């Protein structure tokens, strides 16, 4: 589905990705791990720019609009499906069909706030779920997520992760931790200083491999499955 | 000694330089008090203030309503032409055009329109709508620039441009834009009242009459009403009611007598031309003597009126700037609850409301009755009004300052713990206000202070429109120049976002 060959990217004048080659097939569920600043976000936004037409992106920046309601923030995932006149009227008077859809979606995400509640009044965890709901509401086959569950408790994070994985044929998700969440993925990529240091399938994944990846001494040890 | 110099920080230096410049300006200004007996006049004014007479003015309600309706229609007009321009403001020519329109004070626009439309409501509304629209264009453009990019980036790929713009950009800035319109409406109420001084049927007209005739009971009542009107905006100016007000405003406008097209044409084609060019119907009549006459006219206006006018304008504005600084620093400290206590700070806040509600022009008018015609009344008026406004905006910030555990609730605690946090923003606001002070300075000319406005006003009253227009162009240039310099300085020194322009 997507193939990167010898990619080097800069972020804020710093080398974020160094000579990285990677290919992801359609239908794969890929997790990307790595410490902060390892280049995960840069890689993900690059992947999104390649897959733009058929992927939904849940960015770490969220891009939420504080002055709009919860409903409108989620609805923004559907902007491309409707004519602009429809979108503008909806901005003033919400249409009942999308309103019901969004409400159901939020309920699924245990986001039980009034749809008219202004976003600035939501908590950090709620905001993150609004951003997630917006990405889900794009109803694309591919989901790209940049730590979309980082502000949630582990139980809910796992619950939502299963939901996201079930709803999309292809998933590329960056995760900050080495928790049990990884077992839901087919393939695990490890980024470190902008280089791909780990690329294993689920069956080849062992706790030692992960520990090794995160420990500083093994920086040079590149394990390619 | 050298050791302590290294502790003089950036803002201390800026403050000292500001004060040094202002002191020099003050020494060169005419600040003599020429009044035979200011105290008895003051006494009579205070007496009037103590016993305001609300029933002395005929047509009082009508004057109030006309003040509101001119302001409403003016702001609406400004929005209609200014808001769309915000989208094109990155174009250099549009930005320059707006800067010129903005730099000329409402009252001068009114003087021009007065020649064309006479005392028609159109004069008042256009005089507000024109400069306000230009301001809206620039401010909306600035606000839109600050709208975060991240939302647009996360929108679905095939979203159309209109939806992208409204959901990704406009929705972010709706709150500050509405707040700004509300603030400008307050300004428009002041402008509208001041237009009364040149004969529009608003509060200013009755105020001027009452004060000039020494009817202080009546004048005080009008002033109190005006302050109450501005202080209570949040109560009577509800979003839902605005539409009703607008319709009412349109229907209750004073009758517009028909505009005489030939007069308008005469004004545009003959009256505004320099004397040398009047009567010239085709280019062949332009001979050397006429061109010489034209050059001499330009020279004499420029050297005898524009240059002295500009000097006085700058002297006045710079002195007033430093005085505003003093007023704003003092009053914002007095209004700080954790320093002066609840009761006192509330009293000061009320004072701030009163001071910022009254237009500078009216202040200057009152001070001039007391202190006689010099630059001092104008300086005091500018300092009180602008200082109070800056203090008002500053205490919004200082109220939210979190004190450290060592804060002791005394003036030393304030200087250590609060002042350093609010000072950069205060100075930013102050320098921003300089542009406004400069614009306002010009209108004190109408009261006899020899600023550029004085020469413009004389030009109009002596029906030498060409002179007035040339001087207005000089005013515009001066304002734009100062604006450019101050923006440059601000960009170098502060990164604070300036609220309320």
Automatic annotation (TrEMBL), chain A:
Record lineage: Bacteria, Pseudomonadati, Pseudomonadota, Gammaproteobacteria, Alteromonadales
A Pfam match: ABC_tran
InterPro entries given in the database record: AAA+_ATPase, ABC_transporter-like_ATP-bd, ABC_transporter-like_CS, ABC_transpr_LolD-like, P-loop_NTPase
GO molecular function, one term: ATP binding
Limits of the ABC transporter domain: 2-218
Database matches in PANTHER family: IMPORT ATP-BINDING PROTEIN, TRANSPORTER, PUTATIVE-RELATED
Name this protein carries in UniProt: ATP-binding cassette domain-containing protein
Ribosomal protein recorded as keyword: no
Keywords recorded for this protein, A-Z: ATP-binding, Nucleotide-binding
UniProtKB/TrEMBL annotation, chain B:
UniProt membrane topology term: Multi-pass membrane protein
Source superkingdom: Bacteria
Transmembrane stretches, start-end: 63-87, 107-132, 165-181, 188-207, 219-237, 244-268, 306-334, 346-370, 376-395, 436-456, 462-482
Annotated ranges, domain ABC transmembrane type-1: 64-235, 310-486
Gene3D superfamilies: MetI-like
InterPro entries (UniProt xref): MetI-like, MetI-like_sf
Keywords per UniProt: Cell membrane, Membrane, Transmembrane, Transmembrane helix, Transport
Main location: membrane
SUPFAM superfamilies listed in its UniProt record: MetI-like
PROSITE patterns linked: ABC_TM1
Compartments, record wording: Cell membrane
Identification of the protein by name: ABC transporter permease
Species per Swiss-Prot/TrEMBL record: Shewanella nanhaiensis
Lineage start: Bacteria, Pseudomonadati, Pseudomonadota, Gammaproteobacteria, Alteromonadales
């Amino acid at each position: 589905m997507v193939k990167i060959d010898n990619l080097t990217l800069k972020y804020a004048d710093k080398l974020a990705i160094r000579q990285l080659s990677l290919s992801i097939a359609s239908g794969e569920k890929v997790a990307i791990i790595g410490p902060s600043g390892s280049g995960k976000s840069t890689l993900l936004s690059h992947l999104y720019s390649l897959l733009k037409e058929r992927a939904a992106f849940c960015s770490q920046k969220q891009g939420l609009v504080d002055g709009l309601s919860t409903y409108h923030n989620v609805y923004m995932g559907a902007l491309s499906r409707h004519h602009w006149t429809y979108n503008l009227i909806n901005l003033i008077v919400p249409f009942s069909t999308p309103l019901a859809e969004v409400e159901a979606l939020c309920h699924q995400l245990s986001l039980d706030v009034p749809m008219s509640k202004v976003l600035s009044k939501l908590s950090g965890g709620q905001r993150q779920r609004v951003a997630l709901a917006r990405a889900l509401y794009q109803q694309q086959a591919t989901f790209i997520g940049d730590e979309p569950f980082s502000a949630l408790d582990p139980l809910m994070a796992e619950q939502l992760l299963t939901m996201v994985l079930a709803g999309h044929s292809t998933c590329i998700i960056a995760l900050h931790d080495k928790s049990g969440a990884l077992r839901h993925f087919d393939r695990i990529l490890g980024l470190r200083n902008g280089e791909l240091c780990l690329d294993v399938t689920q069956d080849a994944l062992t706790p030692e491999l992960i520990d090794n990846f995160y420990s500083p001494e093994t920086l040079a040890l590149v394990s390619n499955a | 000694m050298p050791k302590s110099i290294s502790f003089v920080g950036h803002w201390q230096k800026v403050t000292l330089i500001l004060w040094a410049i202002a002191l020099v300006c003050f020494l060169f200004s005419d600040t003599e008090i020429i009044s035979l007996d200011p105290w008895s006049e003051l006494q009579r004014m205070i007496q009037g203030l103590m016993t305001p007479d609300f029933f002395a003015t005929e047509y009082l309600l009508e004057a109030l309503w006309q003040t509101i309706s001119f302001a409403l229609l003016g702001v609406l007009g400004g929005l209609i032409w200014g808001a769309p321009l915000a989208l094109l403001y990155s174009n250099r020519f549009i930005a320059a055009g707006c800067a010129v329109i903005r730099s000329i004070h409402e009252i001068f626009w009114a003087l021009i329109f007065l020649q064309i439309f006479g005392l028609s409501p159109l004069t008042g509304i256009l005089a507000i709508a024109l400069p306000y629209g230009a301001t809206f264009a620039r401010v909306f453009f600035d606000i839109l620039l600050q709208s975060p990019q991240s939302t647009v980036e996360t929108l679905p790929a095939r979203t159309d441009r209109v939806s992208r713009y409204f959901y990704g950009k406009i929705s972010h800035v709706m709150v500050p834009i509405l707040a700004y319109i509300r603030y400008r409406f307050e300004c428009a109420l002041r402008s509208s009242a001041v237009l009364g001084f040149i004969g529009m049927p608003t509060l200013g007209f009755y105020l001027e009459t009452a004060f000039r005739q020494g009817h202080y009971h009546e004048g005080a009542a009008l002033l109190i009403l005006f302050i109450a009107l501005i202080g209570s905006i949040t109560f009577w100016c509800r979003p839902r009611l605005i539409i009703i007000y607008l319709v009412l405003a349109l229907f209750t406008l004073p009758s517009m007598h028909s505009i005489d097209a030939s007069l308008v044409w005469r004004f545009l084609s003959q009256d505004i031309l320099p004397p040398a060019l009047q009567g010239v119907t085709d280019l062949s009549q332009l001979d050397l003597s006429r061109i010489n006459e034209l050059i001499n006219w330009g020279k004499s206006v420029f050297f005898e009126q524009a240059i002295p006018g500009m000097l006085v304008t700058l002297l006045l504005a710079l002195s007033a700037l430093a005085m505003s600084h003093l007023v704003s620093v003092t009053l914002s400290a007095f209004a700080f609850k954790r320093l002066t206590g609840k009761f006192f700070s509330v009293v000061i806040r009320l004072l701030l409301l009163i001071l910022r509600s009254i237009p500078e022009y009216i202040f200057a008018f009152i001070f001039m009755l007391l202190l006689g015609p010099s630059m001092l009344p104008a300086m005091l008026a500018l300092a009180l009004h602008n200082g109070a406004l800056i203090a008002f905006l500053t205490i919004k910030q200082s109220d939210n300052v979190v004190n450290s555990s060592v804060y002791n609730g005394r003036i030393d605690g304030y200087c250590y713990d609060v002042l350093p946090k609010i000072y950069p923003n205060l100075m930013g606001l102050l320098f921003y206000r300089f542009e406004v002070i400069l614009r306002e300075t010009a209108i004190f000319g109408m009261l006899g202070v020899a600023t550029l406005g004085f020469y413009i006003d004389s030009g109009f009253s002596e029906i030498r429109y060409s002179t007035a227009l040339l001087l207005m162009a000089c005013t515009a240039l001066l304002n734009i120049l100062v604006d450019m310099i101050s923006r440059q300085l601000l960009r170098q020194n502060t990164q604070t976002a300036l609220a309320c322009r």
